[in-house]
Amino acid sequence: MTEQTQHKREPNYLEYRGKYSGIMGWLTSTDHKRIGLMYFYAMMTFFLSGVVMGLLMKLELIAPGEQLMGAQTYNGLFTVHGLTMIFLFVIPGVAAVFGNLFMPIMIGAKDVSFPRLNLFSWYLYMIGAVIVLSSQFMGDGPPDTGWTFYAPYSLKTQTNVVAAVTGAFILGFSSILTGLNFIVTMHRLRAPGMGWMRMPLFCWTLYGTGWIQLLATPVVGITFLMVIAERMLGIGFFDPAIGGDPILYQHLFWIYSHPAVYIMILPAMGAITEIVITFSRKTVFGYSAMVISSMAIAFVGYFVWGHHMYTSGMSTTARWVFSFITFLVAIPSAIKVFNWTATLYKGSINMQTPFFWAMGFIFVFMIGGFSGLVLGSLATDIHVHDTAFVVAHFHYIVFGGTGFAFFAALHYWYPKIYGKIYNGKIANIGLIIFFTGFNVLYFPMFILGIMGMPRRYYDYLEQFHSLNIVSTVGSWIMATGLIIVIVNLLRARRGSGKEIDNPWDGRTLEWQIASPPILENFEEIPVVDHEPYDYK
Amino acid sequence: METTATHHADMHRDDDASKIGMWLFIFTEILLFGGLFIVYSVYRFRNPVAFHIAHEELSITMGLINTIILLISSATVAISISAIQKNDRKISMMMLGLTLLFALIFLVNKYFEWGAKFEHGMYPGSDLMTMLSHGDMLFFSLYFFMTGLHAVHIIVGMILLSVSLFKVRSGAIHSTRFVLLENSGLYWHLVDLIWIFLFPLFYLIH
Amino acid sequence: MSKDNHHHIVEYRNHILVLALLIALTVITVAITSVELGPYNTAAAMVIASIKAAIVLLYFMHLRFDQKIYRFMATIVILIFMAVIVVTFFDYLYR
Questions:
Q1: Cβ contact (<8 Å) for C94 and A302?
Q2: C79 belongs to a structural domain
Q3: Is residue C40 part of a domain?
Q4: In 3D, which of B173, B170, B3 has the Cα closest to residue B83?
Q5: Which of A234, A420, A494, B23 is 20 to 30 A away from residue B153, measured at CA?
Q6: Cβ–Cβ contacts within 10 Å for residue B52, how many?
Q7: Dist CA B12 CA B179 (whole Å)
Q8: Nearest chain C CA: its distance from B128 CA (Å)
Q9: Which of residues B128 and B154 earns the better pLDDT score?
Q10: Cα(A277)–Cα(A372) distance, rounded to whole angstroms?
Q11: 3-class DSSP state for residue A45?
Q12: A322, exposed or middle or buried, with CB in 10 Å at 0-12, 13-18, 19+?
């Protein structure tokens, strides 16, 4: 490879000039890498606006009573914060960005199976995003239902629910098409010699994710259509005043939205797996166990939706059934954590920024997972239901899980994406500050929740004051860390770091080609004759 | 292994990929209607009597005719695909034309069926509908929504079949390259599949 | 391997036979629901509808002749959907 670098390279995908140049060259490109980067830039914009909304909410909560905003503004803010972060950042997140950028390369393909469909998905994503975000500003005020749009309130409120729901529906469509594209690609375009059991584990997690996207998203799609029909056409499905059952809405919503948690976390786990392996310089412990656990998470995760509804008035039988299945899904998740640990054991660990992010992921994800057990078991859930405990739990899982994995993956693949290396020291400092801020921000919310502080209010009782101050200060620390991390990466992009093809001694296919990759990835399609991680 | 290798030689033509893609899309559609079937079954379970009485407003004959029309149209699409494989373009086009005709008849029937309801003042948002008892309201909401969504799928299917017909005529679809026709056919069978369940659920409640 | 399957051509006659079978089943459904069988009416209607759906999937949609992978995927999807209904009814049956 190093020899090849000496030769004059084909223009890489960042510089390549097709039919159009400049911005049009990107907006019309069907190259999976460019589409991945377009997702990345869009997503970072939405993510940062979501962060600003989060910071504003935390600022409001620094003291009891009205600080910055009243109840209605706060309700709109947590709704749009939720919508932005869930539908625009974490659900597409790792899969749309790093899946698009690297999955085809990792299986030795030139592109995905349907490149134009891939670009179309991106446009759908952008259209959906614009509609969701504009619901904040247009019509009769931002939706104030929370991102869950629970009936019957979502049918009654005068705010702009229809726009937000339509946007979410379109985003769902985009997600389905991406999943479909990935599944077909992995079925059809694996390089010669790359059997199913030689696929890198990141690809396997994307495969499981694709199936969840295909089978779960349409259920919420139809539910959203029904909400729209109920609001616009005057027919009835969920409004109890006309005989509907609001709990059925919750069933349908969570039939998608719980598996959506696995759409977020599975690719994140996949990226972490790649990082743990590469930085242990050791082959993965239990490859097939990892594959099976990925698919098992995808499968079992489909049947646990009811644990969001323990206090909704569901039957007792349904409650214990859901509680039982919920505990089952902990098994494959735990297999993953054990396998990561076993992979680290006796590895020659390479202490670099992506590795630290991965360790941060495992730490916060464990806290998130254990607090999930508290919520998954019936008795304890009744106590902490709808309190700050829940908020802390899902931020540890969703932000601590997917968010950390996203940044881990970004630091891991950054040299491949841009062909430049960032300043590792500053990156580590940023990570430490971010990590500290994260825990200072969210951990007090566990305690607040157990003390009984309800979520989704702009105001609270005086007894919760001191911990809320801690939490708000944590949000500032975390924001500082985030700024350091991002500025460091931006500087590396502009800087003149030397080009480097394989900085971490990675063994999967994307590290065997030039950085940044050329237009169709490979000068010639590789023939695979060994397992994906052939250390020692 | 060999298939993947041959297939790289011709990146832009992969019929199997298109077909897997179509099947995956069909699975998505199944779950889309699946959500509605869940809603239907829950509400019917909770309002058995109201659903039974409300369904008597629907005409079994109309439903039966439409069912048979859709079944025949499914068979004609299937024959059309067999014909193109045998390189018999004429029969293939004729069968596609027949399918489109049947689809149109289905929609016309639907139009009269819905039209009769509308004439009696029964349409989404009408005074009559909002005055209905709980179970009836749910039944007719589901009836309009599910058959309406199904009709939308009929129209999409007709567009796909028309494009296929056009391409068979121009020769772009032929005996070794017919995946577009095959996929349009799959989509049409899906529309039929859904109706197979809608018919007994709405017209034949006992 | 996949190329061979593409050449499987179903005869016109077979399509017509399948169609006749489907129409017969439809008529039987209508007949059954017009006699009194209590709770079994709905069950019978759904069983026949499922048989019809299976016939459409296997013959018109070529699952019987295509690669196994399609049959496998379709089966899994249908099973998952049925499981979702069952799990949902843990709520409604026992409420």
A1: no
A2: no
A3: yes
A4: B173
A5: A234
A6: 14
A7: 13
A8: 29
A9: B154
A10: 27
A11: helix
A12: buried
The distance of A147 to chain B (nearest Cα, Å) reads 20
- For A152, phi then psi, to 5°, come to -85, -5
Let me know if residue C54 belongs to a domain: yes
Q: Measured between CB atoms, does A314 come within 8 Å of chain C?
A: yes
**B35 at the A interface (CB within 8 A)?**
yes
- The type of residue at B191 is V
CA distance B53 to B134: 12
| CATH at B119 | 1.20.120.80
Closest listed residue to residue B196, CA positions, set B38, B71, B31: B71
Is A255 in the B-facing interface, judged by CB distances under 8 Å? yes
**C89 interaction partners in chain B (CB closer than 8 Å):** 41-42, 45
Task: Give the HSE-up count for residue B15: Cα atoms under 13 Å, Cβ half-sphere.
Answer: 14
Distances (CA, A) of A511 to A2, A14, A275, A406: 12, 17, 13, 19
Is residue A216 a contact partner of residue A255, using CB atoms and an 8 Å limit? yes
DSSP A136-167: TTSTTS---STTTT-TTHHHH--SSHHHHHHH
Q: How far is the C-alpha of B66 from the C-alpha of B76, rounded, in Å?
A: 15
Element (H, E) at C33: helix C12-34
Q: What is the pLDDT of residues A326-371, one digit of tens each?
A: 989 889 988 999 999 999 999 999 999 999 999 999 999 999 988 9
pLDDT of residue A234 exceeding 90: no
B31 in contact with C, Cβ within 8 Å? yes
CB contact under 8 A, A303 and C92: no
C-chain residue closest to A255, CA distance: C84
Q: Is residue C84 part of a domain?
A: no
Domain assignment of residue C54, given as a range:
2-67
- Evaluate whether ipTM surpasses 0.90: yes
The residue written with tokens 């039982």 in the block is A324
**CA-based angle A218:A219:A221, to the nearest 5?**
60
Domain extent for B40? 16-203
Number of folded domains that form chain C: 1
The beta-carbon neighbor of C90 closest among A255, A302, A318 is A318
- Tens-place pLDDT, residues A516-534: 999 889 988 899 998 899 8
Question: Directed axis angle between helix B179-203 and helix B89-119, to 10°?
Answer: 30
For the record, the structure tokens of A525 come out as 């399609």
Which tokens belong to A528? 């695979």
> Is residue B30 within 8 Å of B191, Cβ to Cβ?
no
Q: How many domains does the structure of chain B reveal?
A: 1
Cβ atoms of A528 and A192 closer than 8 Å = yes
Burial bucket for residue B67 (CB in 10 Å: 0-12, 13-18, 19+): buried
pLDDT of residue A9: 62
Q: Do the chains contact at C84 and B75, CB–CB below 8 Å? A: no
CATH architecture of A2-512: Up-down Bundle (1.20)
Is residue B132 included in any domain, yes or no?
yes
Tracing tokens 């990226």 back to the chain, one arrives at A271
Contact A209, A183 (CB under 8 A): no
Strand partners, B174: B177
Is 60 exceeded by the pLDDT of residue A3?
Answer: no
